[in-house]
C-alpha cells in the first residue's frame, strides 16, 4: 500500500494542475482584454485589467506556498463570478458569458480544493445572480447582432468545456488522494493491531496468526528461538520499570536489525521474545543468534545517566523441512532449552534439532 500512496503523490500534483488552470485563465483574460479593446468595449477591457491582476496574484501566492491552494481557488471563484456577472449585464445574453455561471457551480464538486462553507455561499449567490440576469435581460442581448457575439460565444463555450474537463480531472485527483488516505489509515490501524506498542515488533497475536499458516513452513528449513533477558526482574527492581522498558526497546532494535525481512520477530510476553528464522538452515540460524548475542554483549542501555548492561539466554529448535512437525511442540521444546540455559548460567545459546518423537506432537494441523 505504501508504494501505491507514493506513486499517487509522485504522479499527481493537484497544486501544479491548479496553477496550470490559473495560468490558462490569465491568458484567456489577456485575450479578452485585447478583444474588448478591438470591439471598443472599453469598460469591459478595464474589468479585464482587474481580472488579470487577480490571477497574477493568485498564481504568485500558489507558487510561493502550496498551502495557499485553497486561497488561490477562492480568488478564482470570486473573479469568475464577478466577471461573468458584469459581462452578462453589459452585453446581455447571446455572448456566452452566461454559460460561465456554470463554472462556479462545478466547483461544488471539489470540497478538497475549496473552502466548503464559502464555496456553498458563492454557488448560492451566483445562482441567484444568474436568475436575476435572466429575468432582467429577458434572455436577450443588449447589443445589435454582430460578429463579436459569435466570436465570444465560441470562446466562452470553449472555456466552459475546458473548465469542465479540468474539474473532472481535479475530482479524480481528489478521490484518489482520499482513497490513499484511507489506505494509509488502514495501514496504521493494522500496524497498531499487529505490533507491540513498546518495541514495534510483532505481538503474540500476530505471531500466532503466522504460525497458524501451515503452507508457510512445509518443506522449508526454519528455526524457532525463544529468548529471554537475564535478571530482568532485578533490573526493574533496581532501576525502575522505565529503565526496563528502555532495555526492551534496545534489545528489540538489535533483533530487528539482525534478522532478514522474511524472518519473524515478536515480543512474546514481558521480557521474552520469539523468533522464527525462515528458510534458513540450523547453521545459518545459529550464526544469526551468535551475532545477536555478540551485539548484546557490546551494547549498553543508558537510562537517566545510568549505564545498564544485560545479557540474554536463547533456546533454539531447528527443523530440516523433511520430518513432520508441530509448531506448538517446537515452541515448548525451545522454551525448555531456554530454561536449560538459565540453569546452566545464562547468557548462552542452547540449540537442538526438533525431536518429533520425543515431544510426541501430531503433524502441524
TrEMBL record:
GO terms for molecular function: diguanylate cyclase activity. It comes from Campylobacter californiensis. It comes from the Bacteria. Residues 220-354 form the GGDEF domain. It is an enzyme of class 2 (transferase). SUPFAM superfamilies: Nucleotide cyclase (SSF55073). The chain crosses the membrane at residues 16-38, 44-63, 70-91, 122-139, 151-171. SMART domains: GGDEF (SM00267). This is diguanylate cyclase. Its EC number is 2.7.7.65. Pfam families: GGDEF. Keywords: Membrane, Transmembrane, Transmembrane helix. Coiled coil: none annotated. It catalyses: 2 GTP = 3',3'-c-di-GMP + 2 diphosphate.
Amino acid at each position: 500500500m505504501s508504494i501505491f500512496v507514493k506513486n499517487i503523490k509522485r504522479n499527481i500534483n493537484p497544486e501544479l494542475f491548479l496553477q496550470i488552470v490559473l495560468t490558462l485563465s490569465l491568458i484567456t483574460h489577456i485575450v479578452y482584454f485585447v478583444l474588448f479593446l478591438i470591439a471598443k468595449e472599453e469598460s469591459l477591457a478595464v474589468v479585464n485589467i482587474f481580472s488579470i491582476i487577480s490571477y497574477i496574484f493568485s498564481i504568485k501566492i500558489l507558487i510561493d506556498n502550496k498551502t495557499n491552494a485553497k486561497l488561490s481557488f477562492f480568488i478564482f471563484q470570486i473573479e469568475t463570478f464577478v466577471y461573468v456577472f458584469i459581462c452578462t449585464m453589459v452585453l446581455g445574453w447571446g455572448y456566452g458569458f452566461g454559460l460561465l455561471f456554470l463554472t462556479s457551480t462545478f466547483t461544488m464538486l471539489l470540497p478538497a480544493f475549496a473552502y466548503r462553507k464559502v464555496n456553498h455561499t458563492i454557488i448560492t449567490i451566483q445562482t441567484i445572480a444568474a436568475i436575476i440576469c435572466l429575468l432582467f435581460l429577458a434572455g436577450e442581448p443588449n447589443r445589435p447582432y454582430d460578429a463579436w457575439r459569435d466570436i465570444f460565444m465560441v470562446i466562452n463555450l470553449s472555456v466552459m468545456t475546458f473548465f469542465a474537463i479540468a474539474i473532472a480531472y481535479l475530482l479524480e485527483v481528489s478521490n484518489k488522494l482520499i482513497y490513499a488516505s484511507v489506505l494509509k489509515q488502514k495501514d496504521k490501524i493494522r500496524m497498531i493491531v499487529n505490533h507491540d506498542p513498546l518495541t514495534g515488533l510483532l505481538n503474540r497475536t500476530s505471531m500466532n496468526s503466522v504460525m497458524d499458516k501451515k503452507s508457510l513452513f512445509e518443506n522449508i528449513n526454519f528455526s524457532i528461538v525463544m529468548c529471554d533477558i537475564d535478571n530482568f526482574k532485578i533490573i526493574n527492581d533496581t532501576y525502575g520499570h522505565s529503565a526496563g522498558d528502555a532495555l526492551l526497546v534496545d534489545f528489540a532494535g538489535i533483533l530487528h536489525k539482525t534478522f532478514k525481512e522474511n524472518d519473524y520477530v515478536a515480543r512474546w510476553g514481558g521480557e521474552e521474545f520469539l523468533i522464527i528464522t525462515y528458510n534458513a538452515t540450523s547453521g545459518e540460524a545459529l550464526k544469526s543468534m551468535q551475532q545477536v548475542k555478540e551485539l548484546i554483549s557490546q551494547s549498553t542501555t543508558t537510562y537517566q545517566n545510568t549505564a545498564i548492561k544485560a545479557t540474554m539466554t536463547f533456546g533454539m529448535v531447528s527443523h530440516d523441512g523433511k520430518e513432520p512437525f508441530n509448531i506448538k511442540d517446537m515452541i515448548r521444546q525451545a522454551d525448555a532449552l531456554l530454561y536449560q540455559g538459565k540453569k546452566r548460567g545464562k547468557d548462552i545459546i542452547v540449540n537442538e534439532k526438533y525431536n518429533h518423537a520425543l515431544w510426541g506432537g501430531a503433524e502441524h494441523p
